[in-house]
Design brief:
The structure is a single chain. It is globular and about 70 Å long. With about 325 residues, it is mainly alpha-helical. The protein contains 13 helices and 5 strands. Helices cover about 55% and strands about 5% of the residues. Helix 7 packs across helix 8. Bound molecules: tryptophanyl-5'AMP.
C-alpha cells in the first residue's frame, strides 16, 4: 500500500485554500493509503512568533484536523516537535541539498522580501520539509500547487542521497488536486489565498460564521464584462469563484460555469456551497473544544506511531551516510 505524508503549519487560521487544496484530499487518502499527517510547528518557528500563541494555534489546528475528518484510528496524526527525528533528519538533508537549490525556492524569495527579520531556518526550511517527507518512506505527498517545488526538492534530495550512499529513501511525488489546488484571494484574485492578517476580506477562514462567508463571497472582486466563463488569465475573479464552487461540489470549473449567466446567482451559490461544506466541520470543532484531554491523548498516540516509523528510517539514513552506531 502506498504511503502518504503531508503537513500544515500552525501559523494563523486555516483557510479555504488549505481545506480545498490539501485537507479534503488528506481525509480521502486516509481511507485509501497508509496516511501520516503532521502539524509542522518546527516550521512555524522560522518566522517571528509569540510563544504562547504558537502553542495555542498548534492545539487549535490539531483539533481542526480531526474536525475536518481525519480519524486518528485510521491515519497517524501528530505534532512535528513531538518526534525529534524530524529535526535530526533535517541536518542530513541540509548536508545533501545544495545552496543553489535552496536559493531557487520561490517561497523563500516571497517570504524573505516582505520580512524585517529573515532567520537562517527560513532559508533552510525546505530541508526540514524534505526530512518530514523522507522519514516516512513516503510515496505520495498531497499538497496545493504552492508546495510543489518543495516536494520536488525532497525528491531530488532523495535521489542524490540514494545515489551517493546507497538505496535509503523512497522517492516521493507531489499529488496536486485538479480543482482547488490554488484558491485565490477574493479581493486580489491574482494572489493566492493566504493566512496573512492583511488579507482578511479576501480570505475565508474555515471557522468563519455563515454571515461572514456570505459577505466575503458577495464582495469578491469580479470584472465588468458580465459573462460567466472559466478563463483564469482574462477573468481571475470569476474563475476563482467557479473553482471554489467546483471544488465544493465535486465538478470541474467549466462544468460549474454552464449553470450561470450572471454573477449574482454564481456568488449566492458559491457562498451557500462553502457554508454547507464548513457547517459540519465547525460543529465538530466546537464539540472537540469541550474535551481537551481527548486531543492530548490523540496526539500522544500519533507521535508514538510516527516515531516508530521515522526512527527506523533515520537509523538507516545515519548508517548509510557514514555515522558510527552508538
Ligand atoms: P501550509 O501550511 O502553507 O499549507 C498547508 C497546505 O495548504 C495548501 N494551500 C493551498 N492550496 C490551495 N490554495 C491555496 N491558496 C493554498 N494555500 C495553502 C498548501 O499547498 C499545503 O498543502 N511547507 C508546508 C508545510 C509542510 C509540508 C511538509 C507539506 C511542512 N512539511 C511535508 C507537505 C509535506 C506549508 O507551509 O504548507
Amino acid at each position: 500500500m502506498a504511503r502518504v505524508f503531508s503537513g500544515i503549519q500552525p501559523t494563523g487560521d486555516v483557510h479555504l485554500g488549505n481545506l480545498l487544496g490539501a485537507l479534503v484530499h488528506w481525509v480521502r487518502a486516509q481511507h485509501e493509503h497508509e496516511s501520516v499527517y503532521c502539524v509542522v510547528d518546527l516550521h512555524a518557528l522560522t518566522v517571528p512568533h509569540d510563544a504562547e500563541e504558537l502553542r495555542r494555534s498548534t492545539s487549535r489546528l490539531a483539533r481542526l484536523l480531526v474536525a475536518v475528518g481525519l480519524d486518528p484510528d485510521v491515519c497517524t496524526l501528530f505534532v512535528q516537535s513531538h518526534v525529534h527525528e524530524h529535526a535530526e533528519g533535517a541536518w542530513l538533508m541540509e548536508c545533501t541539498a545544495s545552496y543553489g537549490e535552496m536559493k531557487r525556492m520561490v517561497q523563500f524569495k516571497e517570504k524573505s522580501e516582505k520580512a524585517d527579520f529573515v532567520s537562517t531556518a527560513l532559508f533552510t526550511y525546505p530541508a526540514l520539509q524534505a526530512a518530514d517527507i523522507l522519514l516516512y518512506d513516503t510515496d505520495e505527498v498531497p499538497v496545493g500547487e504552492d508546495q510543489r517545488q518543495h516536494v520536488e526538492l525532497a525528491r531530488d534530495v532523495a535521489l542524490r542521497f540514494n545515489h551517493h550512499y546507497g538505496d535509503t529513501f523512497v522517492v516521493p511525488r507531489a499529488v496536486v488536486p485538479p480543482a482547488g489546488a490554488r484558491v485565490m484571494d477574493l479581493q486580489q484574485p491574482t494572489s493566492k489565498m493566504s493566512k496573512s492578517a492583511d488579507a482578511a476580506a479576501g480570505t475565508i477562514l474555515v471557522l468563519d460564521d455563515p454571515a461572514a462567508i456570505t459577505r466575503k463571497v458577495k464582495r469578491a472582486v469580479t470584472d465588468t464584462d458580465g459573462e460567466v466563463r472559466y478563463d483564469v488569465a482574462a477573468k481571475p475573479g470569476v474563475s476563482n469563484l467557479l473553482s471554489i464552487l467546483a471544488a465544493c461540489t465535486g465538478r470541474t470549473p467549466e462544468e460549474a460555469a454552464r449553470d450561470y449567466t450572471q454573477y449574482g446567482p454564481l456568488k449566492a451559490d458559491t457562498a451557500e456551497a462553502v457554508v454547507e461544506l464548513l457547517r459540519p466541520i465547525q460543529q465538530r470543532y466546537h464539540e472537540l473544544e469541550d474535551d481537551p484531554d481527548a486531543m492530548v491523548e490523540i496526539l500522544a498516540k500519533g507521535a508514538a506511531k510516527a516515531q516508530a516509523v521515522s526512527s527506523s528510517v533515520l537509523d538507516r539514513a545515519k548508517r548509510n551516510i557514514g555515522l558510527l552506531a552508538r
